Amino acid sequence: MISFLASHYFQIGTVILFGVGFMTLLLNNNLIRKIIGLNIMDTSIFLFFITIGYTGGREAPIINGAFKGIDAYVTPIPTGLMLTGIVVAVSTTAFALALTILFYERFGTIDLSEVMDSRGD
Amino acid sequence: MTFLIVLPIFLPWLASIFATQSRIITEKRLKPYVAVVVITNFIVLFTVVSLFPKVRFHLLMVNRFIDIYLRPDSLGILFAVLASLLWIFTTFYAFEYMKHENRVRQFFVFFLFTLGVTIGIAFSGNMFTLYIFYELLTLATFPLVIHAGSEEALASGKKYIIYSFSGATLVLLGMLLVFSITNDLSFLPGGIVNFSHFGGTDHNEFIMLLVGYLSLFLGFGVKAALAPFHSWLPNAMVAPTPVSALLHAVAVVKSGIFSLMRTTYFLFGPVSVAMLGASNYLLPIIVLTIVMGSLMALHQDNLKKRLAYSTISQLGYIILGIALLNQDAFIGALLHLINHAVIKITLFFVAGAIYYQTGFKYVHQLDGIGKRMKVTMICFGLSVISLIGIPPTNGFVSKWYLALGALKAHNVLYAVALLLSAFLTAAYLLPIAVQAFFSKKETPELDAIGEGKSLDPSDTMLIPIFLLTAIVILLGILPNPIVSIVTRIAGEVF
Amino acid sequence: MQGLHLTSLLSILILMITAFIMPVIKQRQLVTKISLATMGVVLVMLALVAVDVARVEHYTATIGHYDAPFGITFDIGPIEAVVGVLFAFVSTMVVWYASFGIHKEIKENRVKLFYTLIHLLLASLLGIVFTSDLFNSFVFIEVSTLAACGLIAIKDKPENIKATMKYLILSSLGSGLVLMGIAYLYSMTGHLNMRAIHETLQVSVAGNERAILVSLTMFTIGLGIKAAMFPLHIWLPDAHASAPGPSSAILSGIVIKAPVVLLFKVLFMVYGHEILKDTVILNLILIFGATGMIMGSLFARVQTDLKRMVAYSSVAQMGYIFFGFGLGNAMGMTIAIYHILAHGLTKSCLFLSVSSFIEQTGQRDIDNMRGIGREMPITLAIFSLGGLSMVGIPMLPGFVSKWNLALAAIDYGQIFLLLIILASSLLNVSYYFPIIINGYFGNANLEGKIYKSKMKPVRELVPLILLSIMMVIVGFGSGPILDWIASAMPSL
To answer: How much is the average pLDDT of C301-321?
Structure first.
């Protein structure tokens, strides 16, 4: 157990971060805080991906000089993917913020609980 | 050329679509049009079934279970001919009767459509096809039931549709269970459920078949007004009389009965049903239906409702005949299917004629009416006698076979129930006829109508009543042709 | 045909490109025409793809000459082809319908935006269905979420903003879970291509059981939120009821279907039956589906707002799809996919006819729909046809689904599941029939209502009629469609 924690502490950290973000997004009523939660959640996933992509002792996959064999470089795919992920997250955030402004204009508050009727249906 | 077999179904449907177009079929032409369609359809029906006996025509075949085909066998033809014959009488009767109702066009549109659906039920070659037409029947008759458009009519309509759809859902359940075991839902005389397929050892499949049969039976029983599910029928009496007469004495309830026959004798087969022991569960309900229907009829003051409860009880006879699973009982059931249809439609016509001429709905208002509506009430009296089953009427013939079947089943209880119910029938219908002619009471309400002239309805109404009574008597005096046909049908399945 | 292989990709590209042409065009009429033409072209292209798939069974379009497992590929089999054609067809009809009346429902200056969003939405939905790269599908999911949110918020009323907010928040939660699930899969297998993941997973199950279960749960809940799986459906009624009519039709008809297809691919093509059968996920999906079938209908029953009622009915119908997945046998899955078709066509019919009622009468309450059949007979007839399909009148697609689902349930060995299916269809009767009956026969309210007085011109009803014809065809032609879908089922 301890050895698992020791060897996977990056991943465990990101999962904890994911939980924090998830709960903030789910439970907080303030829209801005919700959006912050969303970003924490997304960031945690990016970190997770990047930690998977990194293998200790390897170089960045940029061939500078001689090619040192496949095992010498880390895989670049996760990092590349996360660029896309960040773009997606930014656009979602932008959309959510714009919607929050509209929300504030219509209801005069950014607190969801003041507006949502708490019917279960 | 076998595709012609669909004509008796699609002709009325097409005709009903045309009837909606008031530019083609003007108000004036509507009645002749309907009459021509109904009579033509009868002739077409006769022609195609004699040209192509026992053909099989696939309307749509998607796969093994979604397979819609028609296969008119002798039972189907019998039912189709009976229905379309009675349709003709009702059409003429309705011409006069509908004069005091609104939205005549709407009435005839659905009236024609229902004819096609009923023949579809008769011709269905497997359970799936039957189910489709059965659902369509509910949809097609619903507008007729709520024709009056009043709150009461809508409430009854709602009840009708809830009951019908619950029944259809049970039918679907039964179909699924049976299909999952047999992989086949076609109708064959003697049934397709064959216990030798799985040796009768698999308890699970046995239970599934039993539940399947029971839910099919109860599901169709809803339309056949079986006891716990009967209460839509009296309520549906708010419909105009031709509808009550035709649909609730002939087409709808008899479709239920017909489907029960199909289920028991053509899908399962008497042997399998007997092995399932399903009758043990059903017979108490059926006996209850017979006795309760009669008892309820006793204290109904509304004439149409009294007739409705009488229908429930009489349908119970037929269902009993089906559930007893022997040849005599089945012959009795088939005979009673025909006889009850003819008798009950006459009774309803008379009730409608009385209402049409005098506005009377209640039994207590009818004292002495026989002096004013002589022909009508004589017809009523004769039909009542037939329904009770006094020899030599047709009612006697069918009840005789039913009693024979009951005795064959080695249970005196059923025979007693039949006898008791016959007495009750006499008790709730005979007084009406007797009081109509021999009442000594003052009848100021009646005297106020029509200045003492005869109140017999006009010919378009009276002739159907008269002819139907003639058929009732004829069937009683000369039962042999019908009995031989019916015996042949019964012989196929046993 | 070799050239056809890229048609699926091209259809998405065309949609994306036209989407961004719209805002710079001045006249509304022209935008409408471009949109309709594009939709038509896409429909034809996807129909060609489907024909091609029918001939060669399966094909792969590779993007940018990078082969799988590293490049992104579109793997198109019968399921993807059928769903793709459905999406294109429904969108085309909805755009056609919207071209007559959308400017009455939303602000004039937003009409162009509406078409842009629809194009983006369809492109991303097709992407979700076609792609065989998990990360790619995530991107498409996000695009579709934003476009769908835009389609709800475009009406600009307070309740729309509220509904959009709710949808966006829950959807983001879902997306987060899905992305985390993808990350788990990637960390276990090192691949994003579905087939490659599947192959690697088969050999590396041992030792990864817990991670597999966690990621499965994440996918199921994440995509379940987006597809309105029962307890996660709470965003749906608000969103679908407040959106403008054509948006509702698209949202209910196809938007919630794409995540279902993805879930199907993830469950059965990525993880595969070997892994699923050792977990409780399928049982959970079955239970959620069954509860949804009942509860969705019960909620629909008590609604007074017609559009909300139809929206809740979607929750129930999605329950059927999850129910089919949950059974986990070939027949259940086939029917689930078939029901995507059935419900997509039926529900878009229903929403479009309901939105016609609302547009013409200004009423939303079910009680005020009495006698509507007199004023708008054809529209109510289409609504009735849809309602009858939901109820399960034979040979309409709803019946075919129900019947086969019931057989699949028997096959599964649990008879009581039959009762749930039947109870749900009875419940459907209880809320669709009163509307139809009161619409045609509600005489009490007929005074002052003139026959056909509020009917739309038949020209404007053509898309609706086409949709209902298609629905009937799918019902009657269910045999070959089912066979075709079944041929693509992963072997169990």
So the answer is: 91
